[in-house]
Specification:
The protein has eleven helices and 14 strands. By secondary structure, it is of the alpha+beta class. It folds into three domains: about 1-65, Arc Repressor Mutant, subunit A; about 80-160, no CATH class; about 160-265. The protein has a four-stranded mixed β-sheet. The chain has a three-stranded antiparallel β-sheet with strand order 3-5-4, sandwiched between helices. The longest helix is centred in the first third of the chain and has 13 residues, at about 10-20. Residues about 1-5 have low confidence and may be disordered.
């Protein structure tokens, strides 16, 4: 059995025969050795060689994604949806795609990010899985929600943050995503073309943000003369703190003061 000049030996051929017979898509260290009557060292070497040559994908330590059939003429690329589904299942967690990945998906930003940004309730850090780069951002169960389930051509789905949630996170997680003041312009633009989004924006702000985000989005919606009834919902969430925050973070805190929202309008 060959692919682009790479020949599969007898051991590899037996490995894939087992995979196809059992219709497996995930293999774990220790599973193959007794079935193929090989040592743990031989199993480790087999999985390493198959990973290095692109026949299988290392999902995490000791866990591998395997194709249901050998990829014709190319490396196995399970796709982002399958990687995230299987990866989060291994950790017993939930996820949603956010940040620059979602900004581009919804057309707010035309810059294509070089990795997928993923809120989840289990792990943090950057990972390279197959040929896909991910930044996993651990957050609480309470901050997961408002999801847009996007079907893929593989018959699977990707969990994106909703459009309203993505806009709110551009304000909430501005320091991580470098998304202010751009996020304000995205919100203003959406309100011009999709008037009904304001109720979703307010709802998501109340459920998934913090005081600073409530104040910034409240001030923005107030400035854009949005529904007083909806804005009142944000006012009711304000704490009694008298401290001021800048409208645009990381910019000199000089400008007029809006006492209603506790904002220094510095831009």
């Amino acid at each position: 059995m060959k692919r682009k000049g790479i020949e599969l030996g007898n051991l590899s051929t037996r490995f894939f025969a087992y995979i196809q017979l059992k219709n497996k898509n995930v293999i774990r260290t220790g599973e193959i050795a007794p079935l193929l009557n090989i040592t743990e060292s031989q199993e480790y070497d087999l999985l390493r060689r198959l990973t290095d040559s692109g026949w299988i994908v290392r999902l995490k330590r000791g866990v591998y994604l395997v194709p249901d059939r050998l990829p014709a003429g190319g490396k196995y690329n399970p796709g982002t949806s399958i990687i995230l589904e299987k990866f989060m299942k291994e950790y017993g967690g939930k996820y949603q795609i956010t940040g620059p990945t979602a900004f581009n998906f919804y057309g707010f930003d035309d810059q294509i990010p070089n990795m997928f940004y993923v809120y989840n309730n289990r792990i943090s850090g950057n990972r390279m899985i197959g040929n896909q780069a991910f930044q996993f951002i651990k957050t609480s169960d309470q901050r997961l929600g408002s999801i847009n389930n996007i079907a893929t051509s593989q018959g699977t789905s990707l969990m994106y943050s909703s459009k309203a949630r993505t806009l709110v996170d551009a304000v909430y997680d501005w320091s991580r995503f470098n998304s202010l003041p751009r996020g304000y312009k995205w919100i203003e633009s959406e309100l011009r073309t999709e008037l009904e989004i304001v109720s979703g924006l307010v709802d998501v702000t109340v459920k998934y943000s913090n005081q600073a985000t409530i104040r910034r989005i409240g001030y923005l919606l107030d400035s854009l003369r949005q529904s007083p009834k909806l804005i009142k919902q944000l006012v009711e969430q304000l704490s009694s703190s008298k401290s001021l925050i800048p409208w645009i973070p990381n910019r000199e805190e000089r400008g007029r003061v809006n006492r209603k929202w506790g904002i220094i309008v510095n831009g």
